[in-house]
Each structure stands twice: as structure tokens, then as C-alpha cells.
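Dear U.,

For the methods section draft, I wanted the exact inputs and outputs in one place so we can describe them consistently. I've listed the two proteins in the order they'll appear in the manuscript figures. Please don't edit the C-alpha cell lines directly; just add comments below if something needs changing.

First protein:
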Amino acid sequence: MHAELLILRLIHILTAIMWVGSSIFTTFFLAPALASTPAVLGQVMAGLQKRRVITVMPIVATLTVLSGLRLLWIDSAGFSGSYFDTGSGRTFAYSGLAALIAYVVAFGIARPIGARGAKIGAALSGSPEPSERERLLAELDRLRRRGAILTQSAVGLGILAAAGMAIARYV
């Protein structure tokens, strides 16, 4: 059991750092920089896809959530109610809930919106008629705004989850 705990904690902490850290960097630094230089956006996205970031990040997030659930299972002796009556138990539970919601928002809602936006962007590069181009640009703008709000919400929840996990043992 001791080895399992060490391995799970290592997986949980390292993948959480990667997930939340890259989300913070992307949302608050990379995306705004690319928004101001749209010509580079396609090249950067192609480079990220080539390096499989689009595939790796959901795997990293899934490992974070699954290892966290297993750690909580072990720590709470099988999700015992008395554990969740403690300050630490409640903090871990609420932090885990925030991480789960962030996961669903990021990969279940915001990511499909981004994929639709990419399809519209590809359609725009095909030189559609002016009226169609205007409609596509309006739709793309709507999707970008919605995606930005969802992504920022997921990142905020990820930050709350990470902060809660960091202090839970001391609550």
C-alpha cells in the first residue's frame, strides 16, 4: 500500500501541475498573444497538434482525476462518511469536485466548441461568398467568446482545486 500511495501521489501531483499549469499559461498568456497575431495562430496550432498536445492533455487530466479519486478512496477508507465530516475531508472533496467540473467544462464543452471554431476557420480559408463569409465570421466570433468564457471558468476551477488540495491537510 505504501508504494501505491507514493506512485499515486507522484502521478497526481505531476499530472496536476502539467494540466493546471499549461491551462494557466495557455489561457492567460499564449491565447491572448496569438489573438493579436491571427496569422501565426494556425502555425502554432499545427505545431501543437504535431506534438500531440491535443491528445496528451485530456490523458494527463484523466490521470489527475483518476489518481485523485483513488487517493481519496484510500485516505477516506472507502469514502467513509466520517472522513468527509473533517475539515480535510471536506476540503479534498470540494477540491476534487472543482477538478471534476473543470474537466467536464474543459474537455466536454469548451473543446468541442474549439473544434467547431477550427472547422469554421478552415471554411473561411476557402474564400466563401461575402455574405457567407460574414455569417461564418459572426459564428466564429460567437464561438470564440463562448470558448474563452468556458476555458477561463475551467482554469479558475482548476486553480481552486489545486489550491484546495494544497491546503486540505491543514484545514
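Second protein (the one for the lower panel):
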Amino acid sequence: MAHTSREANLLGACALAIAERLPPDASDAALVALSTWLAGTTVDGLARVLRLTHSGAVRLADRLERDGLLERRPGSDGRTRALQLTSDGLAAAAGLQSRRFATLEDVLEPLSAGDRTALTPLLEQLLAGLTTDRASARRTCRLCAPDVCGHPARCPVTLAVH
């Protein structure tokens, strides 16, 4: 059996520990993405970002609409419907982002200010390396706060696909 590096093993454990603290489901990811860069997309656009089937995205949109978080408006070409969050949907997305950032700040708590400064370019390199195309960028950024990452000028994911 081949062994991997200690760094790879530690990264995997860290990724899993963080993921367990941030259990976003498709509804959470849809709300956050639709509150920013994905606002006005179609069901097909939502399906691609969340890696859902078309019917899965339709059911998700139906559920969010039934809960008063989303509304369908006329799309850009007359054949499609644009997905827009309601004021309740925007408030729910803001709450999700707030909880996400609080959790991530807790994860970073053991690091000194200097450690955090040193970590930033390493995270940027990893994100750029993980970004293979525009579709992977959109999936990676589904829970992102574009104003925080510096999109588009400083976002490592955006820069990797341009």
C-alpha cells in the first residue's frame, strides 16, 4: 500500500473536520449563491452549480418557492424563468453566511495573526490549483461571499479561469 505525505494526510483530516462544522445542504448553497453572483439564473444554471439533476433543481426551487424564499420571474429570453430570492430568502442567506463566517473564524482561532497572513497565499494557491474550468469555479464558489474574497480582481478562483 502506497503511503501519502504527512501534509496530504493532515490536509484531508482538516478538510473533513471543517466540512463537518459546515454541513451545507443544497438549499443552503442555493440560497447563498442566489443571494449574490447566481441571482437571476435559471433552474439549469442552479443545477449545474449544485451538481443536481434538472428534476432535482426543479424540486429544490419548488421547495424554496413554497417556503416563500424564492420567486420565479420572466427570464431573459421569454422561454426561461429567472430565480430570484425574496426578502425572506435574502435574510435567510445572510443568516447562513453569518453562521458560516463565525464557524470559519472559530476554525482559524488557534492561528496567530502572522500565521493567518502566511496561510492566505497558500489557500490562494490551493484554490487556483483546484480550479480546472469555469464550471468547477462556480461550484467552488457556491457558498462564497464575493465582496470578501475580492471578486473579481483578487479572487484566486476567478483568476484561475481567466
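Candidate sentences for the figure legend, describing the second protein: The mean pLDDT is 94. DSSP finds nine helices and two strands in the chain.

Thanks,
Y.
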